[in-house]
Design a protein that fits this description.
mainly alpha
Amino acid sequence: MFLKTFKHKRKEGKRFIWLDQLQAASRAWGLRISGWLQRKSSSLSPSQLKLYAATFVLLFASLNGWVVYHALQDRHSTVPSGQLYLFHPIMPSVRPPADAFSSTGIRKFRSWLDSLQADSAGRKIYDSIRNERPGLFDSLGQTEKNDFIHH
């Protein structure tokens, strides 16, 4: 008894969503097209139907064959055997100059790291930062170098 009411409630809760509407519209169009084709072919004899079907198949098979042939035909220049990739010309990278706000923030961070290095309690934090993020100090040095070049 309980399962029957539960199933009934679940069916009531189902909503008609856009996908169902699209499926119903495509089914209606398919029925219209098949009805039109049946009305047109009702006056044809079986031999005429076979001839039209064979013509249809040959026409589209030859069209597909033509497409495949032209897709496989080599009309494009090939990459030389020694060269595996097509290389693009190397363009110089243009970097915008760093703004003053970012350089002051980097300088403050660098001075904070230097102050950590000065005392023994801060030295432990400094070493843990160096161990966890080994490329951080290299990045800071490169950023300071680029900032010095740009300003």
